[in-house]
Amino acid sequence: MKWVKEKIYRFLEIDKFVYDEIFISRSIIYRIIEFANSSYPKEFVAFLKGKISNKRLIINDLVYQHFQSSFHSASVNKQLPLSTDIFGSIHSHPGYSNNPSSQDLEFFNKNGTLHLIICKPFNLNSIKAYNALGKEMSFKVY
C-alpha cells in the first residue's frame, strides 16, 4: 500500500514536501536565540526557510516580516507570498513554557509544516518543534 501513496504523492508533486528528518543550521539557532533575547519581554515571530533534499528538511534561513508583539503574543502584519521554500515559523514565549497555545495551533495550521517555539532561558534546549497539528517533532542541529 505504501507504493500507492508514493505514486500519488509523485503524481501530485507532493513528494517535494515530504521529509523524514529535520536539520536546522547552527547559525539559525544562534539567530533565533539572539532575536528572542533582544525582543524579550515581548514575543517575536519569523518564518523558516529551507529546502528538502533526500527526504531531509534543511532549515538554513529566517524570513522576517513586520509583526506586532506584546508580552503574551506576536502576530504577523503581512502574509508571505506563496513560496516553496518557506516551511513554517519560529516564535518566542517570554515565559518558561514552549508548549503551543490554542492561538499557536491555529497559526500553525495555516502557515506551514514545521513550527518552533523558544522560551526562557532562550537556548538550544528551550526550543521545541511541532508539526502543523501541534504534535511535537524532533530536529537535529548541523
Task: Give a summary of the structure in a few sentences.
The protein is an alpha/beta fold. It has helices at 2-11, 26-39, 102-110, and strands at 21-24, 45-53, 56-63, 67-69, 74-76, 86-93, 114-119, 127-130, 136-137, 140-141. The chain has one domain: Cytidine Deaminase, domain 2.
Largest sheet: 8 strands, mixed
Q: Calculate Rg over CA atoms.
A: 15 Å
DSSP strand count = 10
Low-confidence stretches: none
What is the total number of structural domains? 1
Q: How many alpha or pi helices? A: 3
Q: Beta-sheet strand percentage? A: 25-35%
Q: Which term fits the overall shape?
A: globular
Distance between the termini: 34 Å
Second CATH tier, the architecture: 3-Layer(aba) Sandwich
- What structural category characterises the helix and strand content? alpha/beta
What is the share of helical residues?
10-25%
Trace the largest sheet across and list its strands. 9-8-7-6-2-3-1-10
Q: Indicate the mean pLDDT.
A: 86
Question: Please, what is the CATH homologous superfamily?
Answer: Cytidine Deaminase, domain 2
**What series of H and E elements makes up the topology?**
HEHEEEEEHEEEE
